[in-house]
Write a structure and sequence with these properties.
Layout: E1 2-5, E2 14-17, E3 42-44, H1 55-59, E4 65-67, E5 72-74, H2 84-88, E6 94-96, H3 106-116, H4 132-135, H5 143-147
Antiparallel strand pairs: 1-2, 3-6, 4-5
Domain 4Fe-4S ferredoxin-type: 70-99
Keywords: 3Fe-4S, 4Fe-4S, Electron transport, Iron, Iron-sulfur, Metal-binding, Repeat, Transport
Function: Ferredoxins are iron-sulfur proteins that transfer electrons in a wide variety of metabolic reactions.
Length: 157
């Protein structure tokens, strides 16, 4: 993956190569159009609910993965589309927006709603707070995630 990085001085852009690991997650042509108005580079699906390994959070270079009560959510306005989170996700819960399996499509709008709608117990939408670490655990989820049956991760069912 190649990035164009512009330093603080004008006209000092340099091209660098970003190596995220042995896997190549570059996108090919999209088979599914993204619904108008939704731009979610990466989406966290059902496999994260009640699991939240958080390896993705540690790898995110811009701190855009926020913690709800039962799931993690990627802020679409803060994400730089680097794919580091997808590489580190132990649960296989992170998808590029156009690669979502059909059973995960509701999470496209749901991840965006976490930031654009008022969550239970909050007075206003989260919007773009400028970093998950600074905000801390939100402690609320979207209606979709809240409605999912609870599961345990200890192997006892």
């Amino acid at each position: 993956m190649r990035l164009l990085v512009e330093f603080w001085r004008p006209n000092t852009a340099q091209e660098v190569t970003l190596v995220l690991g042995e896997k190549d997650f570059r996108r090919g042509p999209s088979a599914r159009p993204v619904p108008y108005g939704l731009t979610m580079p990466y989406v966290i699906g059902t496999a994260c609910v009640d699991v939240m390994h958080k390896a993705c959070v540690l790898q995110c270079p811009v701190d855009c993965i926020y913690e709800g009560a039962r799931s993690l959510y990627i802020n679409p306005d803060e994400c730089v589309d680097c794919g580091a989170c997808r590489l580190e996700c132990d649960a296989g819960a992170i998808y590029y927006e156009t690669d979502l399996p059909d059973d995960q499509l509701p999470h496209l709008a749901d991840n965006a709603a976490f930031f654009s709608e008022i969550l239970p117990g909050r007075d206003a939408p989260l919007g773009s707070p400028g970093g998950a670490g600074r905000l801390g655990r939100v402690g609320a989820d979207t209606p979709l995630v809240s409605a999912l049956p609870r599961r345990t991760t200890d192997g006892l069912g």
